[in-house]
Amino acid sequence: MKYENLAETELLQLIAADNGAAYEVLYNRYWQPLFLFAYKRLKNKDESKDAVQDVFINLWKRRNTLQLTASLRTYLFTAVRYELLRKIAQSKKTSGSEEMMLMPVEAATMDMLNEKELQHALTIAIDHLPAKMKEIYLLSRHQHKPVAIIAEELSLSEQTVKNQLSKALLRLRQHLKEATVIPVLFPCIFYFLNI
């Protein structure tokens, strides 16, 4: 059976049934992006590898009981964030350099604690878009359809679709900027908008 083309849900079902080949496919699919994500924050190859490895080991250990409320991708990146937090906290204790380590911990903690709130604010902002603009935004950002396809499906010019997308993104940014009380969250908005 070819596992490479299977969806995440199918792979997870196979992994829950102790299928090592499906686990290996999942590992190969996500290891590099998770490592790059970790390395960007830690700037240490060994610690970044360890963080990602720990997440995958934990995934295998919990394979029979794991129940995801979000996508596997979201789960894995969030798990790596927690692992990075743990490593930063350990490093802070052992190095004694509070000034250097306190800032990343606080920023990462704020990011993790408020992602759900930010996602909720984005959902509300999308719901407040005019109907056609909302439809175009969802087709582009949630269904990942190119501008040309959206234009064809909705019988609009490509320029109209581009204009509507630009306006939607401006409105969403503005809504989220107003809804976000904590300034440290604002950089995360671009992640949720998929720009």
UniProtKB/TrEMBL annotation:
Pfam families attached to this UniProt entry: Sigma70_r2, Sigma70_r4_2
GO molecular function: DNA binding; sigma factor activity
Keyword Nucleotide-binding: no
Sorted UniProt keywords: Sigma factor, Transcription, Transcription regulation
Origin: domain of life: Bacteria
RNA polymerase sigma-70 region domain segment(s): 26-93
GO biological process assignments: DNA-templated transcription initiation
RNA polymerase sigma factor 70 region 4 type domain mapped to chain residues: 125-172
Gene3D superfamilies: 1.10.1740.10, Winged helix-like DNA-binding domain superfamily/Winged helix DNA-binding domain (1.10.10.10)
PANTHER family per the UniProt record, alphabetical: RNA POLYMERASE ECF-TYPE SIGMA FACTO, RNA POLYMERASE SIGMA-70 FACTOR ECF SUBFAMILY
Family affiliation: Belongs to the sigma-70 factor family. ECF subfamily.
Protein name: RNA polymerase sigma-70 factor (ECF subfamily)
Organism field: Chitinophaga polysaccharea
